[in-house]
């Protein structure tokens, strides 16, 4: 898979995914209207891969941006690659289609290009995104993720999504699906936290061996939302080594962090609601890191996770344990 000169990668189902995507998650304190404005800017800049999710609760605003840019002739529907995600409260097989159809209704679209299982942990079904008991602890549900996958396969057959994949899965969970009796479609991708401090080299190697694309979120560090990220977490973009390499190439540390992923064969998501940074994040196709640069950045790995997910201590410990197995 050569991403150095191509702006799209062919997935194992034959569909094309742009190698650079625009992330739409925002902390609660940011007005939902900002997602609309930023998505429009991203499309004008050149982004065609838009990454969103039911959990983000801003698909109406993002969908309006997509429709506006189609209406003004900037893009056609087939130019766009839109990703949504099935949230943890919809992992029972009979609820998967319902979650996807809710997203489609909010978006005002007939189909998405990619639908993925957001996390490999099921929560109690219902309207609460994070259902909790009287003690404030997350209420889990017991679901066989292979049954969830089968329901997602049916959504693909119905034309509600062109491709299907997973997120936050380790290699053992991927193997559960890959080895499922009667498997109809392999996961096309696995979206995980991935950046120079957490380069996921083993998981990347595993995914490549199975023709599954690794997609990196939090590739620039994190938005530092206090509900998700520790206040004492390191600032990736202040990393001296990234700054040194960026200066050598007359680039920003963020551009170097994104370019690093592309040259590893990783599809990378860049998230920002700042117009200047959105433009900068797209300017990663006209320079190349040297083999020495790549080796030095590889050396920054410390298996550090920004995204701990605010699920309360019992689920958080489970989730961290599951994620740690992917390193």
From TrEMBL:
Residues 20-301 form the NADP-dependent oxidoreductase domain. The keyword NADP applies. PROSITE patterns: ALDOKETO_REDUCTASE_1 (PS00798), ALDOKETO_REDUCTASE_2 (PS00062), ALDOKETO_REDUCTASE_3 (PS00063). This is Estradiol 17 beta-dehydrogenase 5-like isoform X1. SUPFAM superfamilies: NAD(P)-linked oxidoreductase (SSF51430). The keyword Oxidoreductase applies. Belongs to the aldo/keto reductase family. Keywords: NADP, Oxidoreductase.
């Amino acid at each position: 898979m050569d991403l150095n000169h191509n702006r799209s990668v062919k997935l194992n189902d034959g569909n094309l995914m742009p190698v650079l995507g625009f992330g739409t998650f925002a902390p609660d304190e940011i007005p939902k209207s900002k997602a609309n404005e930023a998505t429009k800017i991203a499309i004008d800049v050149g982004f065609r891969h838009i990454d969103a999710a039911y959990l983000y609760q801003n698909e109406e605003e993002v969908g309006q941006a997509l429709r506006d840019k189609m209406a003004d002739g900037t893009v056609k529907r087939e130019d766009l690659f839109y990703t949504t995600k099935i949230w943890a409260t919809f992992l029972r097989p009979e609820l998967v289609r319902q979650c996807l159809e809710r997203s489609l209704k909010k978006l005002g679209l007939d189909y998405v290009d990619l639908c993925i299982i957001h996390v490999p942990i099921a929560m109690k079904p219902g309207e609460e995104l994070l259902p909790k008991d009287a003690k404030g602890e997350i209420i889990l549900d017991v679901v066989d993720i292979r049954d969830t996958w089968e329901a997602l396969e049916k959504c693909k057959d119905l034309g509600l999504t062109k491709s299907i994949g997973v997120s936050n899965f380790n290699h053992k969970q991927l193997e559960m699906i890959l080895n499922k009796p009667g498997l109809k479609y392999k996961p096309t991708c696995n979206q995980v936290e991935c950046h120079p401090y957490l380069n996921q080299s083993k998981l990347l190697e595993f995914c490549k061996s199975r023709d599954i694309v690794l997609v990196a979120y939090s590739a620039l560090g994190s938005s530092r939302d206090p509900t998700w990220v520790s206040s004492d977490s390191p600032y990736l973009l202040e990393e001296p080594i990234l700054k040194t390499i960026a200066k050598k190439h007359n680039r920003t540390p963020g551009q170097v962090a994104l370019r690093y992923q592309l040259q590893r064969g990783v599809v990378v998501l860049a998230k920002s609601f700042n117009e200047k940074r959105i433009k900068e994040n797209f300017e990663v196709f006209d320079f190349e890191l040297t083999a020495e640069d790549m080796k030095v950045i590889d050396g920054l790995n410390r298996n550090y996770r920004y995204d701990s997910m605010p699920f309360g201590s019992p689920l958080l410990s489970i989730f961290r344990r599951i994620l740690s197995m992917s390193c």
